[in-house]
Design brief:
- The structure is a single chain.
- With about 200 residues, the protein is α+β, with helices and mostly antiparallel strands.
- The chain has eight helices and seven strands, in the order H-H-H-H-H-E-H-E-H-H-E-E-E-E-E.
- It is elongated, with a radius of gyration of 19 Å.
């Protein structure tokens, strides 16, 4: 795959439009369009920024090798097939434990980043009503309440796992997560103290 193809694919996997990516990088949408069409190459600073925003390595972007989708696996599941047992607190815990029984699995909390419009709306709501400030963040949390997220560490790899009612998605992270808080695409994650064990 070319840099242009990888850039477009990584942007889509991060759930960003060209305009949203351009805003995050402080460049024009036309620059993103040009890079994705193969009519230009981002400079070193923009490559670093792309790597961070899209959570892929610079090596991945520049090396004409494997495709990004090989690092993302989405498998259908039926939560009825799993049972809470031992120290497992939920059927979703059981599903991720079943897939990664020998791994270190940490439950994550997640918040979707607010857009500028959502932040303004949240502040206005706070001024005009008795709603608490930061309402936009609360709404983002509610909107994503049906998914459960885990950070799995296995065989020297870190995997971001999302478990829903219908599927389990595993994404091998290109960049190592070191601290307790990290951001990928439009989401902010925080490690909890809860480890998934039987």
């Amino acid at each position: 795959m070319t840099l242009a193809e990888k850039l477009k694919e990584a942007r889509k996997n991060a759930g960003l439009t060209q305009t949203e990516l351009a805003e995050k990088l402080c460049v024009s949408r036309q620059a993103i369009t040009k890079w994705e069409a193969g009519n230009g190459i981002p400079d070193v600073e923009n490559l670093k920024a792309l790597s961070q925003v899209l959570n892929v390595s610079i090596d991945f972007l520049l090396d004409e090798g494997e495709a990004l989708e090989k690092t993302v696996i989405k498998e259908p599941i039926d939560l009825k097939d799993y049972a809470k047992e031992g120290k497992l607190k939920s059927k979703k815990d059981a599903a991720v434990y079943s897939k990664y029984p020998d791994a270190d699995i940490t439950l994550l909390t997640v918040k979707k980043k607010s857009t500028k419009g959502q932040k303004i709306f949240g502040e206005l709501l706070g001024w005009l009503t008795d709603a608490p400030f930061g309402t936009d963040e609360m709404l983002n949390q509610i909107a994503d309440a049906h998914n459960t997220y885990y950070l799995v560490q296995q065989d020297g790899k870190q995997i971001l796992v999302t478990v829903t009612e219908d599927y389990i998605e595993s994404k091998v992270l290109a960049k190592e997560i070191v601290g307790n808080k990290f951001e990928i695409g439009e989401y902010k994650y925080r490690k909890t103290a809860y480890k998934v064990k039987k």
